[in-house]
Amino acid sequence: MKKTTAFKAMLDSGELEFILEAHNGLSAKIVEESGFKGIWGSGLSISAAMGVRDNNEASWTQVLEVLEFMADNTQVPILLDGDTGYGNFNNMRRLVTKLEQRGVAAVCIEDKIFPKTNSFIKGESQPLADVDEFCGKIKAGKDAQSDDDFCIVARTESFIAGWGLEEALKRASAYHEAGADAILCHSKISKPTDVVAFMREWGDRCPVVIVPTMYYSTPTSLFEDLGVSMVIWANHVLRSSIGAMQQTAKHILEHRSLLHIEDRIPPVKEIFRLQGMAEYKEWEKAYLPKTNLQAKAILLAASKGMAFGELTDDMPKAMLKVEGQPIVKRAVTTLRETGVRDITIVTGYKPEAFTVGTVKYVNNADWKDTGEVGSLLAARDRLDGAVLIGYGDVVVRNYVLENLLRSEAPFTVVVDYSMSKQGLRKSVDWAQVTPDRAESAGLKDLSYELKCIDTSLNQGAASGEWCGLLWCTDEGARILSETLDKLEGAGVDVAQWSLPELINAVVESGTAVAVEYIHESWLDVDDVLDLGDLYSFYAV
Ligand code: SPV
Ligand code: MG
Hints:
Elements: H1 3-11, E1 17-22, H2 25-33, E2 39-41, H3 43-50, H4 60-72, E3 78-81, H5 89-101, E4 106-110, H6 131-144, E5 151-156, H7 164-178, E6 182-185, H8 193-202, E7 208-210, H9 220-226, E8 230-233, H10 236-255, H11 268-275, H12 277-287, E9 296-300, E10 321-322, E11 325-326, H13 327-337, E12 342-347, E13 360-363, H14 372-378, E14 387-391, E15 394-396, H15 398-404, E16 411-416, E17 430-434, H16 437-440, E18 448-454, E19 464-472, H17 474-489, H18 499-508, E20 513-518, E21 522-524, H19 528-539
Parallel strand pairs: 1-2, 1-8, 2-3, 3-4, 4-5, 5-6, 6-7, 7-8, 9-12, 9-14, 12-13, 16-20
Antiparallel strand pairs: 10-11, 14-19, 15-21, 16-19, 17-18, 17-19, 18-20
The structure holds sulfopyruvate (SPV) and magnesium ion.
């Protein structure tokens, strides 16, 4: 239903309806979420929220801007408190046109003189508008509207200005005749006397709207009995926010700490929810180039590094330095430069030796008696979304990570097809890939799939060497978690496994593991000779 139609239906529903004040996009959303069927765009509240008086100090276009944010942020109709229409008939025409364009359902204008003053400030000395002039303004507004359901509420300030019932009735009749869709009868006394008197005489000539700010203690059932159409709760959201802001400011100043305030105020994530960040995130996926800011990384760095002899007596090999920089620090730097911020290092041997800056650590206390998957299990709660799993002693060129993290396959591994490995010196994680790079040389846009990783293969039977990186998208991380659950459920001691064994299990379970081929561009540091290579790796 159009907002205009919804508002008109409220006025004409034959039941007492309620609308609540809001003064910006946020408060409008809060009012809507709370269940109100409509919103009062209060002049008092909007001006107060801007830090100015309710004396038309804010220009009408500044008010319009606020209304646009309110209307954009809500589905329920807004009745704007349009003061005096911000001028004569001509200003009124333009106002109505602009309100329609910005999705505001209705406007209320009051029979005072521009610039107006709030009704609760020296109301009796406030001059009322000439009746005919005001009727012309109503007519001009009605003629300007292009949507038949747009409503104009005519507000008489007769009681406010001390003119009483007779004047109120005279004015209300004239405004009704001029085409007003409803009459707002305002009063500033603490008893409902004015409104009761008015309603008894007025009957049901047209819908009547009231603002019981001053006669707040009146039971709502009385308004119902009187046949009032709509009640405006005119400033209570603003007032409660003022109280909350004052308390919080005072508290923080006094306590010089946030400790005791934090749990008493809505969390930051509530702001994000109200701002609709969830929707933004959905569209971000569709429109923004992929970034890795959400991706996490787990670096396995538990082992001592036996091949280094005495060098690792006091520190794990991942913390061995070349040119003053620990190996794992270089891996972390590459991750950071690629946009991965959330990095967890799984330590084991001498966890206290790790000083890599702002990364998270988890420790695999059983590092001596477990395999790589044992370390991965220590960081198991990190498998709750896209995650890169790698080793703390492997370094790669930035582009390798950039390409890898762009892969949308659930799993992707990096395979070096250069065959330049020092296979003689140490065991190599050979990878078999289909199609084999050698077979498909020159063919473009092929997707490669891992068949297995196997140290017992020989160079001839392998497609390349696995570089120790496994990239899991959200889906991949979920599958990996489930695979671990299943294996454990079946009584397999997966903690003993190497990462290649786990990857092979994923392949065997039927999930394709994509391969990103590279040519060199990486290094794993397993012994002292590799430390020399690491120096050259960064020297060039
Ligand atoms: C407003 O909310 O700005 C109103 C109602 O006009 S009152 O403040 O009661 O005049
Ligand atoms: Mg007002």
